[in-house]
Amino acid sequence: MKYLHIVLLLSFLACTSTQKVADSTSAEVRQDIPTAEVAPLVPMQEVSNHGFSMDRLKRFDDYLNAEIEANRIPGAVLLITREDEEVYHKSYGEKEKDSGASMAKDEIFYIQSMTKPIVSIAFMMLYEEGHFNLTDPVKKYLPQFDNMKVATEHQGDMKLEDAKSDITISQLLSHTAGMSHGLGASDLDKKYLQALYFQQHADIEARVNVLPDLPLVGQPGAQWYYSASPDVLALLIEKFSGMNAAEFLQQRIFDPLGMDDTGYNIAPAKESRKAVLYNTQPDGTLVKSDRQTPASGHTIYGGTHGLFSTASDYMKFCKMLLNQGEVDGEYLIGRKTLALMTSNHLSDDIEYAAGEGFGLGFGVITDLAKTKALASEGNYSWGGAFNTYFFVDPSEDLAAVLMMQFNPYTDHYADKLRQFVYQALVD
């Protein structure tokens, strides 16, 4: 912000100097120069809202509308808050293409991996109650995770070796345990995908119990590898609290925050508000998916994905984070716990995106210059597989949520969210 003031000052001085030159010019010369009416300066408060230029934010409107017109994204909902107040809340496009029905601000989206930060916060609530230490081995509470094997090759006939150390709870939170999510192209990733998501599991314990039978992609703690480890967190929530993740989240997070449209299943009365899922075709345009996400009937209350939510509901979660865990005078999580979760937990020898790290459930910006993008150091965020995104910026008291519903995931619109939000921040 200090650079903005310098720019404004220099602009003012430049205008003043120009006026002095004009005043010193002879009257005869001035008669030959046509005069133009200069618009009066507009006070900053008339062009901004909590430090945002509304004109600059409209650039994001233009961009999203152009992407919708080109059939590269479906309808979208954008919500930005700063200083605990709503700055911008808009919907774009149609609920379903060519339907004539506008996208609603309270559309319910399947948020996929944006479930992970919520479950991570829930799990760390139990840490604050003393149920475990972050350095504890997972096998202390789930004995099936003893004697894990590591695949030294990920294709074909995989060679296995013993894990050199036990998986710890902090490694589950930071995706350094060596598990996979099944999203990669290797034979080992495909084994994870098949075992986790293409088998019928009755509940989260049944799904988690396939993980010890699969070899790890690498030694525990040796790499960051996006994984299904938050499902293990969901099972541990059951073990420690006596409630499944759905019950725990409802009582400890959703009810206190008033997140009435968030859960693993959508109530029948709200089902018409569920977003339509689209698929990206090879040419980059969208087609309605043949496989729409069921609104109800879900019995696996996991940590990797599974929640439905709205932009407004998820913003309530973000605002709680910005408020250092506090809502209505009560603390859902302590500020020191939150500080720990949003610190980088990756060692220097672990590869990750330039200028970024990973905490306990969140991606974190650690070196702004290395990211080559607009943001702030300390900004933390995550996204969902159907292209839902959020970020929280404590230094600017700022949060943003962008919800869309198409597959597959791309970082492109997460980058655009930050780019357009930050370029509009003028104070």
Description:
α4 (54-69) packs antiparallel against α14 and α5 packs parallel to α9. This protein has a seven-stranded antiparallel β-sheet, sandwiched between helices. The protein folds into three domains: 2-33; 49-115 and 243-423, 3-Layer(aba) Sandwich (Beta-lactamase); 121-240, Beta-lactamase (3-Layer(aba) Sandwich), CATH 3.40.710.10. Helices cover 34% and strands 15% of the residues. It has 14 helices and 18 strands. The chain has helices at 2-24, 27-32, 44-47, 54-69, 115-128, 169-174, 187-197, 204-208, 229-241, 245-257, 311-322, 335-341, 368-371, 412-423; strands spanning 48-49, 52-53, 76-82, 85-92, 109-110, 149-151, 160-162, 278-280, 286-288, 308-309, 326-327, 330-331, 356-358, 363-365, 380-384, 388-393, 398-403, 406-407. By secondary structure, it is an alpha+beta fold.
CATH topology of the largest domain: Beta-lactamase
Report helical residue fraction: 25-40%
- Strand arrangement within the widest β-sheet reads 4-3-17-16-15-14-13
Distance between the termini: 6 Å
Shape: globular
How many strand units?
18
What's the mean pLDDT score?
91
CATH class of the largest domain: Alpha Beta
Structural class: alpha+beta
Strand residue content: 5-15%
Q: How many structural domains can be distinguished in the coordinates? A: 3
CATH architectural grouping of the largest domain: 3-Layer(aba) Sandwich
Instruction: Please give the largest β-sheet.
Output: 7 strands, antiparallel
Radius of gyration, taken over Cα atoms and rounded to an integer in Å: 25 Å
Q: Outline the low-pLDDT stretches.
A: 1-36
